[in-house]
Amino acid sequence: MGLLTIIRKARLKERQVRVLMLGLDNAGKTTICKAILGEDVDEVSPTLGFNIRTILHRGFNLNVWDIGGQTSLRPYWRNYFEQTDAVIWVVDSSDRARMEDCRRELHELLQEERLMGASLLVFANKQDIASAMTSEEISVALDLPALTSSHHWSIQPCSARFSLVSSPPSTSPSEPLLSPTTSTTSTATPSPSALPRKGADPRIMLGLDWVVGEVGSRVYYGSQNQAQALAPVSEAKA
Ligand SMILES: Nc1nc2c(ncn2[C@@H]2O[C@H](COP(=O)(O)OP(=O)(O)O)[C@@H](O)[C@H]2O)c(=O)[nH]1
Ligand SMILES: [Mg+2]
Q1: pLDDT higher for 195 or 35?
Q2: Is residue 172 part of a domain?
Q3: How sure is the predictor about 99, in pLDDT bands with cuts at 50, 70 and 90?
Q4: Spans of biased composition, class Low complexity (predicted)?
Q5: For a pocket test of ligand 1, which of 31, 67, 122, 159 has the largest count of ligand atoms closer than 8 A to its C-beta?
Q6: CA distance 175 to 206
Q7: What is the tally of structural domains in the chain?
């Protein structure tokens, strides 16, 4: 077992999960973090450096690095790659004009050796916008199937501004995630402990479920104990 694997396992025993939240600028990364934490999603300004947010989810401490996505900041993403357990890639589903840019950046990112063991969750955000692409369309546009050989990935439609829209989301919160690694988590109905914090889109919580299920089963518990990894340990604090 390599040193990095030992360090990673030790950290995961403490249920610390390092998550990089990346994507083009304006995708909704900071808003998603705020929605999860029950903060006011109206007050979001462009991220010029990075924010670190700690999210307690199903007994795991997700240390989420929300890093600015402007073109000028992207070369600095590499400074944050070390010991990453999962990448959450946020997409503005209505930004068709930059979808190719988005695909290129994602594929370039995931060629990085230090991210080789990381799972990938794609949030197809801004589903409340009428012209938004579906997660299936985005999966094709970003060529996610091409990543299957190197990364476990999943895509989850959502809206960080869910609480502000009057109509219900276009897809059911319990709609399975689209994933080539068809794990047991992808069809799971969220347990009460995974219910959304104040006003956040439940589909965002399903995405986080997938992340902790992936990381927990793959690195910490061994895949046969995935259900155990998802057990609501110390959820009282969540
Ligand atoms: N309609 C809609 N707007 C969103 C959503 N998420 C974020 N936004 C808006 O998109 C803009 C960029 O959001 P921000 O979180 O700063 O993006 P970031 O650059 O990826 O961190 C802001 O004006 C947000 O209010 C969403 O789900 N729906
Ligand atoms: Mg931001």
Answers
A1: 35
A2: no
A3: very high
A4: 165-196
A5: 31
A6: 9
A7: 1
